[in-house]
Amino acid sequence: MENPQSQPQDSEEYPEVESRFSDLQMPDLTPRGLIGHFGPGIILMMTGIGTSHLVTAPVAGGRFAYALLWCIPMAYVFKYYGFEMAFRFTNATGKSLIEAYSTAWKKWPLWYVLVTTLIQCAIGQAGRLIAAAAVLYYLFTEVVGWGFTMTQYGLVLALISVAIILRGSYEAVEISAKLLAAILVVSALFVYIQAPAPLSEMGHFFLVEIPDGSWLVIAGFLGLLPTGIDVSLQASEWGKAKKKGMSKIRDQLEDMGLANRFDPFAPDVNDLAVYTSRLPSNAVQYCQSWFKIGTWDFRVGHVISFGLACIFVLLAAVWMYPSPVEGRAVMGEIATIFTDSLGPAMMSVFMVGAFAATFSTAFNYFDGWPRIVGACCRNLFHGTAELSGLDPNELTDAHRKTFYSEYNIYRVTMIYSLITSVAIIAGFERPVFLVLVASALAAFVAPVIFFLNLYYCLIVIPKEDKAFYPSNFARLFGWFSLTVFTVLTLILIYWTLWLPIFGS
Question: Is the dihedral angle over the CA atoms 431, 134, 158, 315 positive or is it negative?
Fold first, then answer.
């Protein structure tokens, strides 16, 4: 969708362009270099792994053995492009998907995202936080005998998370995610290698079974494997905050007239596009290199997350079935996977991995959801737009002192999430049910986010830009995946909401 009246100038009209971008440092694309450059994809992986893998997956295996294995490839395959498009959009434009959402009629996607995110900040975060709190509750209250409650553990973890994030920046989130991911992967692989599930049961990955009473668990699986598609918006904001590739040079391109300046209050979707054919060769190479990094960052995280989901379901099916897996001692029940299979010594291995997974989820969400609320506000309100930004190095006194700045909206939302999630934990006696409800909520909003991500990638990224524009397969399978996921969501809504409320 080209707008001839708003096209940026060709780089040839600016003799100084090449020199302006001559200092761009090309990233190392070797396997070791790629891992070092990874960020948003690993954060995305660790954001989902906590409750989906350490609670929902063992619930599925403990209650229904291998019957729900089919949900894992279903979720990972058909949700792939819902996430991939978020990485693609940010790496191709240097902008967040939230900017794209602001171009819709009356900005309805922003209001939709804002409302659902505020709900998730409370209910969703409670489900994530309680999983991390449950690890500490089992280890220190039930095993060691300390007198602390689940609520107290949740409060401590929430305060630690908020303190680290507010004193740091995006880098703090990225470093924490990488460290916790390494701990989780090593501990999970070690245990599974010692006690693998029988190969004869692997056929359940391809056999759709729906046992009685499994609909809420299925909804939880499809909602939070690998994580909720709404987290793709967080990944887009994280990609922008990383300031590599197109997000690093976008402002320069706008200043030099090589890309249009986007105005969320006079939004033209064409202004989001960057035509790489108009850029100097070194800038194009730089952006394409970081696009490759962003793509592999997501793919590696997606594959690792898939493998871990399979491991925890299989181990639960072997060592826990039949088990209801419920109550405040949920982590104690799940810990039997390791203690019964490999002995009590493995409990420590499990607990380290379990805490790494669950805490990383809660930690990342304390940054991600408030970041989305702030992003929505900077595209909805003029005052917030004039005081946009979260980078500590770019904040002014006005950002810090004005209550409606993006920085302060972000901070207030984080505190709101802390208070409401801890309050919910204090008053709720069924943590597993809470996790499943939070997961199902993520599934119900997913089709809308999926559609918008795919739609804006296709209309914003120039078709002639073969490096960034989705391939024929990506477009076709993306639309097919959206159709499948929408149908599944409607079925889940019918079985989990309509029938219980209105009856058959």
Answer: negative
Choose which CATH entry (1.10.4160, 1.10.260, 3.30.565, 1.20.1630) describes domain 4-364+431-502.
1.10.4160
Judge whether 243 and 233 are in contact, CB under 8 Å.
no
Average pLDDT of the chain to the nearest whole number? 83
Sequence-distant (≥ 6) Cβ neighbours of residue 102 within 8 angstroms? 109, 110, 264, 267, 379, 380
User: Omega of the bond prior to 322 within 30 degrees of 0, cis?
Assistant: yes
Report which of 332, 330, 297, 335 is spatially closest to residue 315, judged by C-alpha positions.
Answer: 335
CA neighbor of 97 nearest in space, from 408, 363, 455: 455
CB 435 within 8 A of CB 127: yes
pLDDT digit string, tens, across residues 474-489 = 999 999 999 988 887 8
**Coil vs helix vs strand at 166:** helix
pLDDT digits (tens, 9 = 90+) for 48-91: 776 667 667 777 888 888 898 998 998 899 899 999 999 999 99
Asked if the model's pLDDT at residue 5 lies above 80, the reply is no
pLDDT of residue 3: 43
Q: Looking at residues 160-184, what average pLDDT do you find?
A: 79
Distance CA 405, CA 390 (A): 9
User: What's the token pair of residue 16?
Assistant: 């100084």
Considering only 140-149, 388-397, 470-479, which range has the smallest mean pLDDT?
Answer: 140-149
DSSP state of 23: T
Domain map (residue ranges) of the chain: 4-364+431-502
Distance, CA of 248 to CA of 331 (rounded, Å) = 43
Residues sharing a CB contact under 8 Å with residue 110, sequence separation 6 or more, in sequence order: 98, 101, 102, 104, 376, 379, 380
Using CA atoms, how far apart are residues 402 and 380, in angstroms rounded to an integer? 17
The tokens describing 261, both together, are 């300046």
More confident residue, 31 or 86: 86
Structure tokens at 58: 């063992």
Residue 308, Cβ density class (10 Å: 0-12 exposed, 13-18 middle, ≥19 buried): buried
CA distances from 233 to 62, 99, 331, 420 (A): 32, 11, 30, 22
**Burial (CB count <10 Å: 0-12, 13-18, 19+), residue 108:** exposed
User: In terms of C-beta distances under 8 Å and separation of at least 24 residues, what long-range contacts does 19-24 make, across chains too?
Assistant: 20/252, 20/256, 21/249, 21/252, 21/280, 21/282, 21/283, 21/286, 22/282, 24/249, 24/282, 24/283, 24/286
Closest CA to 76 of 298, 359, 316, 368: 298
From CA 274, how far away is CA 292, in angstroms rounded?
Answer: 17
> Residues 372, 373, 379, 384: what is their CA dihedral angle, to the nearest 10 degrees?
-130
